[in-house]
Amino acid sequence: MRKNIVAGNWKMNKTLDEGLQLTSEVVNMVRDEVNSEVQVVLAPPFIHITSVQKLASEQANVLVSAQNCYHEESGAYTGEVSAAMIKSTGAEYVIIGHSERREYFNESDEQLATKVDLALANDLIPIFCCGESLEIRESGSHFDFVTQQVTNSLFHLSEESFNKIVIAYEPIWAIGTGKTASSEQAQEMHASIRAHVANQYRNDVAAHLSILYGGSCKPSNAPELFACADVDGGLIGGASLNARDFVDIAKSF
Ligand code: 13P
Q1: Is beta strand 210-213 parallel, antiparallel or unpaired with respect to 62-66?
Q2: Is the model's pTM score more than 0.90?
Q3: CB-based burial of residue 33 (10 Å sphere; 0-12 exposed, 13-18 middle, 19+ buried)?
Q4: Catalytic member of 48, 71, 98, 196
Q5: What's 154's domain CATH number?
Q6: pLDDT by residue (tens digit) across 75-89?
Q7: What total of structural domains would you count in the chain?
């Protein structure tokens, strides 16, 4: 069946020393406290990935992710990082299409589709992010909007490729705001995404897909969110910067 995953997106936080300190604390706590079936993923800034990966490799269920990759294979793109480079560090995941990348870096659905292809071609697992703004939710078109994001960037994939990806539903209005989606709101959107996938592929592809929730997820609300039938874990921002909080979330299944 599908995996339970708790991923920490550090965003643009932590110096190298701070990041290594956080990683060792997480590794030690996960070893002692977290069910080995739960995959714990750390997504530090690019520059820390190699060092974080070395520490994380001490614990089999602590894996490393990048927060982004570029939509070209290689070449004259100063400042960018390719999927192949990420893979060469030992990282196993890459977050693609986070709402902050869509908003501040104008990433389009088409570019994100290319990034997903490059990640898969380099044997990385994409964590594909989708989610609506408050305006869209209030207009009542949030299910259609998220369905369209998923269709536009993922439905060109073969069934075999689709089986390798992870989706994260992150309503923009809940990110960094302290305003979490209720477990009912998360469940109904996750169920809608899964039904949409079942419609396009097959029921067993949809049943195999891990769908994570992100947006002000904390130790206090994680148990209720993770208890929902279609919520398979979390993509955690702020609370992943503190080892105790992050690991408490990973213990919430
Ligand atoms: P917060 O947990 O800080 O709301 O961030 C969620 C997020 O954007 C994770 O990618």
Answers
A1: unpaired
A2: yes
A3: exposed
A4: 98
A5: 3.20.20.70
A6: 999 999 999 999 999
A7: 1
